[in-house]
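Entry 14. Structure prediction run on the chain below.
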Amino acid sequence: MSAELGDALGAVLADPARVSEVPREQALELLGRLAAVQAALVARVAAEPTAPTRPEAAPAPDRLLRPREAAARLGVTVRWLYRHADQLPYTRRLSRRVLRFSNAGMAQEMAGKKTLNKGRSYA
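Output returned:
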C-alpha cells in the first residue's frame, strides 16, 4: 500500500467524516483492499470457536444422600425407598448392605417427572 493510500485510510479511520476528502481513485482502491481485509477477518473469526463471555462454573460434585435424606427429599418412606432401590436410576450401591442416592440424579429425575406429570411436585 502506498504511503498516500495509507495516509488516506488512517485519516478516514480516525474521522469517518473525512471520507469526502479522499479522491475517487483512492476511494475505489481503498474499497477493494478493505473488502479483502474484511473477508480475511470474517474467515478468521469464523474459524475460531467462540469463547464463552463468562467463565463457566465447574459443576458441583454430586452428593450421595443417605436413605433417610433421600426419602425426605422424595416424600416417601425409607422402607419404600429400600424396596424400590433397584428400579431407581439414581441408586448407588457402595457395598452389599450400603445404599446411597445420587443427589444430582434425583434432581434430574424429579425435573423430568415434573414436566411429564403436568407440574406435580415430589418434595
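The beta strands are 64-65, 91-93, 99-102.
Filed with the rest of this week's runs.
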